[in-house]
Amino acid sequence: MSYNKLTPEEEYIILHKGTEMPFTGAYTNLKDAGTYICKRCNASLYKSEDKFESHCGWPSFDDEIPGAVKRVIDRDGRRVEIVCANCDGHLGHVFEGERFTAKNTRHCVNSLSMIFVPKEG
């Protein structure tokens, strides 16, 4: 399978499960309509209507596109990591029970793991 070329910082996050500094990501405060896709393989991950402001420092979503994201127990054994279901690229972590939205779920995603594709029109 062919993947997009990544910068060293993107490789650190996507391939080596790193985390970008909070409040530094290009998509943390983005409110435009569109779709967020995987930076490594271009698979669709999230819709803008599922994005919400959690004030945690990273883009937050309370739902993913069906089948787009896999959940795996993190190396620390406490958190749940989320990865692209297509290429296994690290996206971030998912948290439940925080009551930020009615879905009670927060996908905390690194901006560098995604590309935003604006909605046409």
TrEMBL record:
<dbReference type="Pfam" id="PF01641">
    <property type="entry name" value="SelR"/>
</dbReference>
<dbReference type="GO" id="GO:0030091">
    <property type="term" value="P:protein repair"/>
</dbReference>
<keyword id="KW-0862">Zinc</keyword>
<keyword id="KW-0560">Oxidoreductase</keyword>
<dbReference type="InterPro" id="IPR028427">
    <property type="entry name" value="Met_Sox_Rdtase_MsrB"/>
</dbReference>
<dbReference type="InterPro" id="IPR002579">
    <property type="entry name" value="Met_Sox_Rdtase_MsrB_dom"/>
</dbReference>
<feature type="domain" description="MsrB">
    <location>
        <begin position="1"/>
        <end position="119"/>
    </location>
</feature>
<keyword id="KW-0479">Metal-binding</keyword>
<dbReference type="InterPro" id="IPR011057">
    <property type="entry name" value="Mss4-like_sf"/>
</dbReference>
<dbReference type="GO" id="GO:0006979">
    <property type="term" value="P:response to oxidative stress"/>
</dbReference>
<dbReference type="GO" id="GO:0046872">
    <property type="term" value="F:metal ion binding"/>
</dbReference>
<dbReference type="GO" id="GO:0033743">
    <property type="term" value="F:peptide-methionine (R)-S-oxide reductase activity"/>
</dbReference>
<protein>
    <recommendedName>
        <fullName>peptide-methionine (R)-S-oxide reductase</fullName>
        <ecNumber>1.8.4.12</ecNumber>
    </recommendedName>
</protein>
